[in-house]
């Protein structure tokens, strides 16, 4: 099956700028206690469709934005299962990579109240349509394009007002197009990671590692900026 995922390139924002901190500084251990980072599930839409087993099934899957890949024992997953799998794989891999870097990383459930100390990593899978507008990426049939991006932010929970990562955009001419039109919140510093072709599992892990490296660099920068 065709899987479109990752060649990860940081494009914008101080999270990406933090990734440019030299490797020696990034590998230094954090002072105790380690920073606490809550990893949220990244947003990913699912098409409202029901899988079928007809002869056209494979063709429709191949047209999907994130085609439903082969599941365990070669069985295809439906879009809902596939979307959950992608989100879980990303969150688990990112949490594990942060822990390996000495961060007290924890997955946070959707809607879970968070404390006012620590950091939150959140993100959204998205694509750029033919009109150069951002849309939330969608798992399902006939979604069209395969290339996607993920926009990620790492925000201090001590901020007085945590702004949403993105906002919905009302567009009268977008009916029938897959994925909700959005715009990234200009008051939130986010980095974009461009995802190109590759094996799904490997590229999710690679994406997570790239994001973790950028988060660790930002945490080191924040620690160094604290008054002594």
From TrEMBL:
Superkingdom as given in the UniProt entry: Bacteria
Keyword set includes Signal: yes
InterPro entries, per database record: DUF4410
Annotated keywords: Signal
Residues annotated as signal peptide: 1-23
Protein name: Conserved hypothetical secreted protein
UniProt organism field: Paraburkholderia phytofirmans (strain DSM 17436 / LMG 22146 / PsJN) (Burkholderia phytofirmans)
